[in-house]
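# nightly structure sweep
# worker-07 picked up a monomer target from the shared queue
# config: single-sequence mode, recycle default, output format = structure tokens
# input follows
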Amino acid sequence: MFTRLREDIATIRERDPAARSAWEVLTCYPGLHALMFHRFAHACWRAKRRWLARFVSQFGRFMTGIEIHPGATIGRRVFIDHGMGVVIGETAEVGDDCTIYQGVTLGGTSLTRGAKRHPTLERGVIVGAGAKVLGGFTIGADAKIGSNAVVVKPVPAGGTAVGNPARVIMPAKAAAPASAAAESTTPRPGFCAYGITPNADDPVSLAIHGLINHAATQSQRIDEVVAALERLGASLEALHGADAALLDLRRLSAALEGKVEAEAR
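# output follows
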């Protein structure tokens, strides 16, 4: 018990620069307190003392603002940062070294009693503030869930999911280690607070901006062609078709810019 407590304190000091001492972490971090309550409640749950387990769980919720069902499985070195409003359901599984921020829900979408209804987070998953992971699927190792994302499908290992419904905007790892020994020697990716990954732009936004840039380039090229034809003495009737095409492209460019601004708002 004390070994795991020391691990938890060291993990919090590693991932939270605001933690100045082990005593501060032990006395002032509700995420740590919630895990301590959960371990006792989970032990009662496994011993078939279900009412006592639920009572301890609810007392821990009252004290910390973090609700973890006693049936949930929580791994080692899990960090629940801030934690207020976190809900972890009965059949949820949280792997080692995961990080969960405030307002996260690991919820179930099935009413089938005894079935796997809640998600599984594999090792090293980061779930940003306000994210909802709903269903009995798996979030792969070292995946990142952006803040306020609503995830209803599996996320591959190493992927980053954002949006509502969530889209995977960064690819998964090319291949998993062949053995446990290889996994232990594979370098872990750097920790990303709140699941924020550099250069992780939304592909839909990138595509729209690409269309706008393409339309602007075509408009400029048509202007250059029209100017060249005018210098060669072409008649206005011959240029009418080119002017109409230019007008259509300008209208398309304006419409795309308006769409991007509307999505940004």
